[in-house]
Structure prediction request, 223 residues.
Amino acid sequence: DGGITQSPKYLFRKEGQNVTLSCEQNLNHDAMYWYRQDPGQGLRLIYYSQIVNDFQKGDIAEGYSVSREKKESFPLTVTSAQKNPTAFYLCASSNRGRKETQYFGPGTRLLVL
Amino acid sequence: QKEVEQNSGPLSVPEGAIASLNCTYSDRGSQSFFWYRQYSGKSPELIMFIYSNGDKEDGRFTAQLNKASQYVSLLIRDSQPSDSATYLCASGGGGFKTIFGAGTRLFVKA
Prediction:
């Protein structure tokens, strides 16, 4: 089955700790994205990548880092510099193009202990 | 600042009625428009996309686009309680950044 997987489903972070959220896709999509969603809010773009070994900051990149070493994978690290990390994190992917449609993974809920 | 605006709701309709969800966007360069449905605690799932002015129908769903007015809508016919969710409108095509609205909560009463 083609799709996007995210792990873990729930993640607990201790203060001062870096944590990494996994995102894998087997849709052969070139572009991948990370969004943050807070309760009752819309999606805010953290980082996006159009191609392997290249990525750009979104609207709220501070306190986050990413890598894109493989086409299928786009992990997100929430660093200790992110002071308010509690949120629902969504990974998405799409083909490249001006009418690209994004498809989402199931999400990771990050909670701070 | 490119924006997509939606009424947060909740929009409440009786079962079997037509639900009408609306959205406006600020970027005239947008070329593609999307409607996603998001159930509580779940990720968004694509319902429809539309690129051209006019109507596009898919089953009980109809998307409407008016580029002159920068307005997109989604009609859900014969609404069911299972349609109760938050509906996200999004615009794209001005690069690789799709802009999402905050969503409209729909509640279909049985």
Remarks:
- Chain B touches chain A at residues 8, 31-32, 34, 36, 42-46, 49, 51, 88, 90, 92-93, 96-98, 100-103 (CB under 8 Å).
